[in-house]
Amino acid sequence: MVSVNRVILAGNLASDPQFKETSNGKALTVFPVAVNKHWRNKAGEQKKETTFFRIIVWNNIAENCARYLKKGGAVLVEGRLQTRSFTNSVGKTQYMTEVVGDQVTFLNKPSKEHVQQEEEPAIM
User: Fold this and answer.
1) Is 12 exposed, middle or buried (0-12, 13-18, 19+ CB in 10 A)?
2) How many CA atoms lie within 13 A of 4 on its CB side?
3) Which of 26, 47, 87, 102 could share a disulfide with 22, CB 3.0–4.6 Å?
4) What span, in angstroms and rounded, lies between the C-alpha atoms of 14 and 52?
């Protein structure tokens, strides 16, 4: 039996990435990506629908995303869908589907401010 779980999304960050470390020291970054769909209805009016996807990345990718990405930045994310369950504060089981990214391509050029910070040596 063949099975494939692969997702490719291109969009913009809806908020700044949130960097965390797990209890065993693994880097984790979470960020939402907004993906727009454009079409014309039967009356010829331009329509737009935005879907938000929760992205999770790990290790070096997590560190780079936390360091270089900002709200509004354009990204291409490749990964897989994952659904997990958890018990909320009132004891009800909830389910969350998210994209676990294994490759993130930054589609914006780095800001001049960030490039200067990288090139200038730290003064101690």
Assistant:
1) middle
2) 3
3) 26
4) 8
Mean pLDDT computed over 102-116 = 76
Confidence class for position 109, pLDDT limits 50, 70, 90: confident
Nearest Cα neighbor of 106 from 54, 65, 53 is: 65
Sequence letter at residue 87:
T
Residue 33 has phi, psi (to 5 degrees) of -115, 130
Into which CATH architecture does domain 7-119 fall?
Answer: Beta Barrel (2.40)
Q: Dig out the tokens for 77 from the structure.
A: 């994310």
Structure tokens at 80: 């897989």
The residues pairing with 114 across neighbouring beta strands, listed in sequence order, are none
Residue appearing with tokens 């020291």: 25
Do the beta carbons of residue 100 and residue 82 sit within 8 Å?
Answer: yes
Q: Is 97 helix (H, G, I), strand (E, B) or coil?
A: strand
What per-residue confidence (pLDDT) applies to 98?
97
